[in-house]
Here is the input.
Amino acid sequence: MSDKFSSYAHPEALVSTDWLAARLDDPSIRIVESNEDVLLYDTGHIPGAVHIDWRRDLNDQTVRDYIGPEGFAALASRHGITPDTTVVFYGDKSNWWAAYALWVFQLFGHKKACIVDGGRTKWVAEKRPLTREVPTFATSAYPLPPERLDAEIRAFFGQTLAHHKAGLPLVDVRSPGEFSGEITHMPEYPQEGVLRGGHIPGAKSQPWAKAANPDGTFKTAEELRALYEGDLGLKKDDDIIAYCRIGERSSHTWFVLKYLLGFDKVRNYDGSWTEWGNMVRSPVERS
Amino acid sequence: MYPAPLQALIDLFAGLPETDRRETLINLAESAPLHAPQEGEIFDLEDVRKDEECTDTVGIHLHSHADGTVSFRVSLGPQVQTLTRAMTSILCQGFEGVKPQEILEVPADFVPKIVGAELVRLRSQTVYYVLTRMKSAVKVLLNRQRAAALEGT
Here is the structure.
């Protein structure tokens, strides 16, 4: 294991492209690509990788929520995943959506999961093999998870409001313009109907992208500590809620805080600004 | 209803099975560099924007021809999404030699006919991005032309 990985709190949550390249035929792992670019997988993917789309596969198609235990068991079974399978996530945008997919898997208690450091960008930059062949795996019998573990790693509006009132740490991982209220969505991204701009009063700004290097890899533990413990003053026993716009960027920060830095109590508020900024009388601060 | 070059593309996609539709979209995405500005080309209007947070640079470059028609070139940064690349090829071809007012009046309902309802549902407004940018450029062009005409009277 490299010095970089061994300095993380949970080095097993991250694998290198070298590690993955040596295990493409390993039946104990399932490689999952998860992207923002919905056609990227179709243009070529890591051999043996299956595609999980956050919108199609992980979101409930009617209610704004995630799939339930039945949906998750069906998804895992469809890809031949069992509770013993190590799911190796990678994707575009510095593993933004890979972290989101991993977070959803953990909502159902699937702990054997990791992320490829550098994701798709690094794999492609290293000129490693890609294929357009879509693999098929024998359907597995994934046991129905007894519940979705929302209470452990997910925060809802009411909990986030209580968090704010109690003065507990809130990390806003959106861009500086979104945090200040100057804009209500990422530049050039779809406007998702937010009526008010700004941030949750008391939240501290630390854009998610600061945790990633230009090549998509995560920064070192020392660099990450400087961002979150140094800049934000977070302490190991803090109860932390991270949020962004719909919970996707904050999944990346959630992964960094929980697995790379070892904060035990971190939740992702997936309702995020598209809920908070629309809620009547929810407190908003602009700066 | 649609400009003839665009109608031809709509017809091409009509009835394609989903796998062929995706394959065709990927092929169109791969041909997007053919619609990039050529070295030395001079345009009547250029709108190049860089998004520092996530998406890459998308530049709309517009030629206004003497017969009143326009044509587009589009420059795309390396991180621009596949669907956006595909839509770039589709719209550069579909609006080639079309008059600005016609472009402004094109309803956006052709997009699901080309990319399919499933992709529109999954990525909603993303698929309309290049169309919106092109229409914005055309509006600016028309405003400039109107202002120039007023100055000349």
Observations:
- The mean pLDDT of chain B is 90.
- The radius of gyration of chain B is 16 Å.
- The beta strands of chain B are 45-49, 58-64, 70-76.
- Chain B has one domain: 4-152.
